[in-house]
Amino acid sequence: MAYPKVLTVQDISCVGQCSLTVALPIISACGIETCVLPSSILSTHTSGFKGYTFRDLTDDMPAIREHWMKEGISFDAIYTGYLGSTRQIDYVADLFGSVAAEGCIKIVDPAMADNGALYPGFDQPFVEAMKVLCGKADYILPNITEACFLTGMEYKTEYDRAYIDELLARLTALGCPNIIFTGISYAPGKTGVVVFEKGEYSYYEHEKLPNSCHGTGDIYASAFVGALVRGHKAFDAAKIAADYTVECIKATAEEENHWYGAKFEPVLMKLIQAL
Length: 275
Prior knowledge:
Strand content: 15-25%
Order of helices and strands: EHEEHEHEEEHEHHEEEHHH
Shape: globular
Structural class: alpha/beta
Low-confidence stretches: none
Largest sheet: 9 strands, mixed
Number of domains: 1
Mean pLDDT: 95
Distance between the termini: 16 Å
CATH topology: UDP-N-acetylmuramoyl-L-alanine:D-glutamate ligase
Radius of gyration: 17 Å
Number of strands: 11
Helix content: 25-40%
């Protein structure tokens, strides 16, 4: 892939350092042509802001796809983030079959839950639709909460390797051969990412920082996609993305009032150097 072209499908929060406002610059910084399909536009993200505006773009998605097909446009990778409805999930599944170039890498971040609960507005039919989409992907990037909803397993905050192995087995049973399992902690003060690729388990552990930031999941997924499409193996891409996300959190901790997102821009050069 001399000059790969990636399509990312998710919402735009105009202010807030998440979703497309993170994915577009990070994947572009990896040296990849980055195309976007916005699923909705918000004035800000929904965590901590009040009175934000919201415009649903679901009805625009089929016409955009049809235009691309008429123009013969296709993509070497398709990466999905936050999708707002089962209709949007269905449209993304159509994209997988209609504008994917030969050998297209399909990456799904099933962004729908955290801390043991679904995000507001999501329900079991949404989970069922996401299961189908995950089954069509080459890589999925769930956290533990999302993995539990996708598999029907009990959510736990304390667990062992056997629990993670069972989650992995049930996730692969959905049809996706490769799992990038984020936020897995086996020891106090540590966290990491499990890479389960075609039945092979590997784990990258790093420091667990005391502060958390909105949008770090989007930062991680975008950096992973960029590194993977650049040709790095899945484990190396997972490591590069984890190290970069840690640097973003550290940079954010230096500024007391930066509560709404993570400062990914000042440390982009570290990601570029890692690639």
